[in-house]
Amino acid sequence: MRTRLAALTAVTALSALAAGCGSEPSSAPTRSASAPASSPASSPASSPASSPTSLRLDDASVPLAERLTQALATVSSGTPGAEDVREAALFEQTTARNLARGSKAQTEKVLGALGRPERAQLEADIAAARELMVMTDPQPKLPDWRILTPPAPDELIPLYRAAQRETGTPWEYLAAIHLVETRMGRIRGTSTAGAQGPMQFLPSTFAQYGAGGDINDPGDAIMAAGRMLANNGAPDDMAGALWSYNHSDRYVAAVSDYAEQMRRSPAAYDLYWHWQVLYRHQDGTMLLPEGYPGEEAVRIAD
User: Fold this and answer.
1) CB-based burial label for 45 (10 Å; 0-12, 13-18, 19+)
2) Cα–Cα distance, 159 to 1 (Å, whole number)
3) Which pLDDT tens digit goes with each residue over 3-55?
4) Cα–Cα distance for residue pair 75/87, rounded to 1 Å
5) How far is CA 286 from CA 17, 105, 135, 165, 250, in A?
6) pLDDT tens per residue, range 142-153
7) Are 71 and 92 in contact (CB under 8 A)?
8) Residues 118, 123: Cα–Cα separation, whole Å
9) Is 64 exposed, middle or buried (0-12, 13-18, 19+ CB in 10 A)?
10) Which strand ranges, in their side-by-side order, compose the sheet holding 284-288?
């Protein structure tokens, strides 16, 4: 499985390089959930028809837009966690990252060959990648993290929705923060700023919003994030609320892009849940598989 994913992403990178891509974009997570500032957030042509099993995603002879259309269809119609769905989601993830490094003209060429829903998804993911890539630099060492199997998507949805009911914070924004910070719970580790848990809270901030819960518990952390965002403007001022979570306009833009896609289509949530942990190392982009560091990191791009 790991070898197959590495081969697939290598082909994706080559396809994107053929479209004129450049340097490697950012990886998740970004930084920490800080305390609030007051207490240190005419339509394109239809896409080519294809069934989810009609093309090989690593077949570089097939136009990239066709393979992206197939990948998104596979995620939308497949079983969460199935190998073909994981591969399809990773294909879209790495393609978006690679296209984010390319010229506007070349990126528009790919986007213009997609149908409207596929274009909306990829365009948002490229925009978010462009924002996040400038927030981190390639690192000389691999991180001192553990990569876990995350809670299943149908286990996380009730946690997001419970936080929305209690705090008014839209669940899609909570899921988007979860995605950016720890790939929805895959990353377990302490950031350089000291942030912890699936929503990457500073312990002092979690003490303020966690209601005595466990910083590493998904339900407690998601609820605390909802409370913090609500205390800083959500749902009426989501940009301000997100800025309180991370004092970066780029972070606000990226999280908003992901959240708006999940509001647009339930399939976007399924896609994002499958995204993998990609780490910017000085030797290239490394995929950190579930089980890392027991499972070795896989280099997938220069």
Assistant:
1) exposed
2) 30
3) 455 445 444 433 333 332 222 333 444 444 544 333 333 333 334 433 445 67
4) 9
5) 17, 28, 17, 38, 23
6) 999 999 999 999
7) yes
8) 8
9) buried
10) 277-281, 284-288, 298-301
